[in-house]
Write a structure and sequence with these properties.
By secondary structure, the chain is of the alpha/beta class. It folds into 3 domains: 2-88, 3-Layer(aba) Sandwich (Rossmann fold); 102-327, tm_1862 like domain (pyruvate-formate lyase- activating enzyme), CATH 3.80.30.20; 332-387, no CATH class. 37% of the residues lie in helices and 23% in strands. It is built from 12 helices and 16 strands. It has helices spanning 11-26, 50-66, 85-88, 119-123, 131-143, 166-176, 191-202, 219-225, 231-244, 263-275, 303-327, 357-363, and strands at 2-7, 30-31, 40-45, 71-76, 102-108, 127-128, 148-153, 181-184, 209-211, 249-256, 280-285, 332-339, 344-347, 352-355, 370-379, 382-387. The strands form 4 sheets. A 5-stranded mixed beta barrel has the order 12-13-14-16-15. A 4-stranded parallel β-sheet has the order 2-1-3-4, sandwiched between helices. Helix 6 (166-176) runs parallel beside helix 7. It is globular. The N and C termini lie far apart (47 Å).
């Protein structure tokens, strides 16, 4: 029997899909390379934006029309998902082996009530995986040969296992093996993120990439969004991080065209992106989600203007990312090898980096190896350099 996966959305969805894949493999199934080969097709959907949900629903309709005899299961953040016994009975404790980096789920759900977000309706309130269980799973990933663990959850700032929060968890994971990397996913600006900065600064093997989903550079918009912080909180965390780790990369999520967003508000977000030299930004226009408060708000921005503001933000974000990449010239970075032929992979700062061609074949690096590279050039935000031997 063969199973095929289509996974949309966030790292959490991907982590869950990989665990599910490992569970099927443990049962003797094989992973199909196409829908046509599969006996079972599993779609892990995403409804975080109307566009994402539409793409998932369109795929499901296409699959049911093209393969009426095949079994298709929808799961993840979708209204039409079914609590299939086949999925409930899977051994989700198996270690996925198909990826270069391990995705470690530590938390699910969210207890916030942001005006634009539908996710709590699908995933419920915040729940944390027991601290010791997370560490045990991380050890298993390391034993399986992974050299980087990506810590993921629905809202990592709400991780709490008997008073131990994400910063304590990050430090404990880093202490398991100083030769392996820990990458922390998105953490909302606030006390948890501030604590995480201290943990990052104290542990060299926690990736120097801090992703803070600020959403807007306007306090007026943040208040309307029901976000639990102000722009100043975000700025203070970034300032603290840069003082402790001068070359830390700051990533963020930015939303354009939220209801009531004025041109002044939009300008404030663009200014924030430039002023704080954001190294990596996920920019998206506001999307009405039925069932959320924002869907009923007055002051709707025309879709064309939302797209225009998002495009302007993305241009600025791309320019800042290129500037950040150029700052890395002359520095030594470390990659986890994903592309063996070119000895290329992601740096701890979340930049793609490769060895110069003349070194790639000679070094003989394998997938998942950690390789240090002295950066010699940056083409856009892609780095290249020579190997560093210790």
């Amino acid at each position: 029997m063969k199973v095929c996966f289509d996974t949309f959305g966030c790292r959490l969805n991907r982590a869950e899909a990989l665990s599910m894949e490992a569970g099927f493999l443990a049962r003797g199934w094989k992973v199909a390379s196409s829908h046509a080969e599969a006996d079972l097709i599993i779609v892990r959907g995403c409804s975080v934006t109307a566009k994402a949900q539409h793409e998932c629903e369109r795929l499901l309709e296409h699959l049911k029309e093209k393969y009426p005899a095949k079994r298709v299961i929808a799961t993840g953040c979708l209204k039409q998902k079914r609590n299939e016994a086949l999925l409930r009975d899977l051994d989700m404790d198996r270690i996925p082996l198909s990826t270069t980096r391990a995705f470690l789920k530590v938390q699910d759900g969210c207890s916030s009530n942001c005006a634009f977000c539908i996710v709590p309706q699908f995933r419920g309130t915040a729940r944390s995986i027991v601290f010791e269980d997370v560490l045990e799973q991380a050890k298993r990933f390391f034993d399986a040969g992974y050299t980087e663990i990506v810590v993921t959850g629905c809202n990592l700032s709400q991780y709490n296992s008997k008073g131990r929060r994400i910063a304590q968890l990050a430090a404990a994971l880093a202490a398991l093996d100083g030769r392996r990397r820990i990458r922390i996913g998105s953490v909302e600006p606030g006390p948890a993120a501030a604590e995480l900065v201290d943990a990052m600064a104290a542990n060299a093997n926690i990736c120097r990439y801090l992703h803070l989903p600020v959403q807007s550079g306007s306090n007026t918009v943040l208040s309307a969004m029901r976000r639990p912080y102000k722009v100043q909180d975000f700025e203070e965390i970034v300032d603290t991080a840069r003082k402790a780790m001068p070359f830390v990369a700051i990533g963020c999520d930015l939303m354009a065209g939220f209801p009531g967003e004025s041109e002044h508000d939009a300008l404030a977000t663009r200014s924030l992106t430039m002023r704080l030299a954001i190294a990596r930004a996920h920019v998206f226009p506001f999307s009405e989600r039925p069932g959320t408060a924002a869907a009923l708000m007055a002051g709707k921005i025309l879709p064309a203007l939302r797209a225009e503001r998002a495009a302007a933000l993305q241009r600025i974000a791309d320019e800042e990312r290129t500037r950040y990449a150029k700052r890395m010239i002359g520095r030594v970075v470390e990659i986890v090898v994903e592309d063996e032929e070119n000895v290329a992979g992601w740096t701890g700062e979340y930049l793609w980096c490769r060895l110069r061609h003349e070194y790639a074949t000679a070094i003989g690096a394998k997938r998942r190896d950690l390789v240090k590279i002295r950066v010699q050039k940056a083409e856009g935000h892609v780095l290249a350099g020579t190997p560093v031997f210790e």
